[in-house]
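Summary of Year 1 activities. Much of the first year was spent building the evaluation harness for sequence design. The harness presents a backbone, in tokenized form, and records the residue chosen at every position. We chose the following record to illustrate the format because it has been used consistently in internal testing since the harness was completed.
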């Protein structure tokens, strides 16, 4: 049976274990956050982290946050990560996670609320999930920039 739940501060140890079980090496950017740090992250109610579990083991997660827009009234919910383990794909879990993220954002955010995410133009699975869940593709010309990690 699939269960989908939003995590809070008391779920920090579970979050650490779930992320460790789910994330393949190419999704990791160094060591995962500690349980203490996850507790602080999950205690911030504007950060949304939702885990999908099947038969008591994690099968996917979605994460993102709500922030105020400075260009208009209301908030923007940004969906940052969406991941379903390869053995559990194409069973509707990705769509269910996006739906759960939207519901949580709707419960908490100031109106009007817009929701935003992005994915690679060649990521057919993710594009299908977003479009199936009501997102409209915005065909902007977009170049991504990254600042290297600052360690000092
Ligand atoms: C993207 C991802 C989360 C989709 O999860 P999922 O649980 O397989 O998605 P769902 O089962 O909910 O599928 C939703 C729809 O997408 C379609 N779909 C899934 N995989 C697809 C693929 N590889 N190509 C085309 N369509 C695909 C499904 O058929 C379904 O379509 P439908 O609504 O017409 O029935 C999963 O493939 C994944 O984790 N990929 C790696 C991480 C990633 O790329 N994340 C997104 C970028 S941040």
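For this record, the design step produced the sequence shown next.
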């Amino acid at each position: 049976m699939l269960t989908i739940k939003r995590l809070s501060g008391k779920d920090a140890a579970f979050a650490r274990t779930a992320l460790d079980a789910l994330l393949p090496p190419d999704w990791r950017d160094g060591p995962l956050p500690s349980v203490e740090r996850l507790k602080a992250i999950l205690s911030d109610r504007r950060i949304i982290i939702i885990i999908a579990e099947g038969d008591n083991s994690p099968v996917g997660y979605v994460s993102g946050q709500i922030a105020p827009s400075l260009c208009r009234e209301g908030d923007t919910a940004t969906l940052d990560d969406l991941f379903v383990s390869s053995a559990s794909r194409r069973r509707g879990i990705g769509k269910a996670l996006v739906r759960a993220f939207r519901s949580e954002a709707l419960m908490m955010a100031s109106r009007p609320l817009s929701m935003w995410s992005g994915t690679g133009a060649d990521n057919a699975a993710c594009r299908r999930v977003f479009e199936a869940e009501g997102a409209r593709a915005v065909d902007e010309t977009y170049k991504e920039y990254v600042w290297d990690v600052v360690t000092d």
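The pocket of coenzyme A is lined by residues 81-84, 89-95, 119, 123-126, 128-129, 132 (CB under 6 Å). Quantitative recovery figures across the full test set are reported in Table 2.
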